[in-house]
């Protein structure tokens, strides 16, 4: 069995510029990986693509993004053999943390090895774009500015080190629904350039000050409990707080480790899924 790690991402910024003729939105966003990961096991078999997962929210058929990744490689490169894909899910589902996209990216990278395809990361990212807008970022990992519909990736240095508290309310959010309700005239736009400068200068206060997500107000108006979690996380002592992606997960940045128990335990009082993880920020050299 070949194992591959599929880390979650958070959006330090997410700006939506306009709706495009293809019905996607033009975005500009800064994403970074965190140390919360699914584990993917890949085993060659005679034929077919078989998904095994104990998570009841994860489809085990062609709707699974890891299945789609395997199918795409199999069809494109005329692979005869099949694969069993074991998904050990740690990333909450439909959370705004790119769980499915990261599973797809890890499957592409793992099968590239298992099937000796020798494709470059750039080639895998291009294939990944056919599966979803976040897959290209997940192929590279680390920290990046993503443009276009999310598939044009410019690598950035790692942000200053810190802890990330993730809190996911019990609701799952549909990305399409949130983009569908987005109104460009009402949107707040983060300052992407200032965030890039803060990251480059390893300026933690600057990163905190420039967090911003144009989709946040849309999700907050659909699901008021997300606003509550934001308020609680601030009250318990996070340095800065934002919703990730289209939500509903809220993340808080914390530099002092001693503050984590109060925030973690406070949130656990009314939110079932809470995680305290490190920012990874760097590309995995072994990936
Ligand atoms: C919210 C984010 O996760 C932030 O990282 C991404 O922008 C969404 O990435 P994703 O989940 O990989 O999205 P996709 O699977 O490609 O698209 C899901 C749906 O979201 C909408 N969508 C997505 C990306 C984009 N730039 N504009 C959009 O309008 C489209 O309605 C699309 O049908
Ligand atoms: N491997 C997978 N893991 C989790 N969900 C998957 C997977 N493949 C397909 N899905 C489907 O995708 C939907 C969205 O799940 P996912 O966890 O990828 O959302 P997300 O974290 O909001 O992603 P993003 O941040 O890229 O929008 C789920 O409702 C689920 O049915």
TrEMBL record:
<keyword id="KW-0547">Nucleotide-binding</keyword>
<keyword id="KW-0067">ATP-binding</keyword>
<comment type="function">
    <text>Catalyzes the phosphorylation of the position 2 hydroxy group of 4-diphosphocytidyl-2C-methyl-D-erythritol.</text>
</comment>
<dbReference type="InterPro" id="IPR014721">
    <property type="entry name" value="Ribsml_uS5_D2-typ_fold_subgr"/>
</dbReference>
<dbReference type="Pfam" id="PF08544">
    <property type="entry name" value="GHMP_kinases_C"/>
</dbReference>
<feature type="binding site">
    <location>
        <begin position="92"/>
        <end position="102"/>
    </location>
    <ligand>
        <name>ATP</name>
    </ligand>
</feature>
<dbReference type="GO" id="GO:0005524">
    <property type="term" value="F:ATP binding"/>
</dbReference>
<keyword id="KW-0414">Isoprene biosynthesis</keyword>
<comment type="similarity">
    <text>Belongs to the GHMP kinase family. IspE subfamily.</text>
</comment>
<protein>
    <recommendedName>
        <fullName>4-diphosphocytidyl-2-C-methyl-D-erythritol kinase</fullName>
        <ecNumber>2.7.1.148</ecNumber>
    </recommendedName>
</protein>
<dbReference type="InterPro" id="IPR036554">
    <property type="entry name" value="GHMP_kinase_C_sf"/>
</dbReference>
<feature type="domain" description="GHMP kinase N-terminal">
    <location>
        <begin position="64"/>
        <end position="142"/>
    </location>
</feature>
<dbReference type="InterPro" id="IPR020568">
    <property type="entry name" value="Ribosomal_Su5_D2-typ_SF"/>
</dbReference>
<dbReference type="GO" id="GO:0016114">
    <property type="term" value="P:terpenoid biosynthetic process"/>
</dbReference>
<dbReference type="InterPro" id="IPR006204">
    <property type="entry name" value="GHMP_kinase_N_dom"/>
</dbReference>
<feature type="active site">
    <location>
        <position position="9"/>
    </location>
</feature>
<dbReference type="InterPro" id="IPR004424">
    <property type="entry name" value="IspE"/>
</dbReference>
<dbReference type="InterPro" id="IPR013750">
    <property type="entry name" value="GHMP_kinase_C_dom"/>
</dbReference>
<keyword id="KW-0418">Kinase</keyword>
<dbReference type="Pfam" id="PF00288">
    <property type="entry name" value="GHMP_kinases_N"/>
</dbReference>
<keyword id="KW-0808">Transferase</keyword>
<comment type="pathway">
    <text>Isoprenoid biosynthesis; isopentenyl diphosphate biosynthesis via DXP pathway; isopentenyl diphosphate from 1-deoxy-D-xylulose 5-phosphate: step 3/6.</text>
</comment>
<dbReference type="GO" id="GO:0050515">
    <property type="term" value="F:4-(cytidine 5'-diphospho)-2-C-methyl-D-erythritol kinase activity"/>
</dbReference>
<feature type="active site">
    <location>
        <position position="134"/>
    </location>
</feature>
<dbReference type="GO" id="GO:0019288">
    <property type="term" value="P:isopentenyl diphosphate biosynthetic process, methylerythritol 4-phosphate pathway"/>
</dbReference>
<feature type="domain" description="GHMP kinase C-terminal">
    <location>
        <begin position="195"/>
        <end position="271"/>
    </location>
</feature>
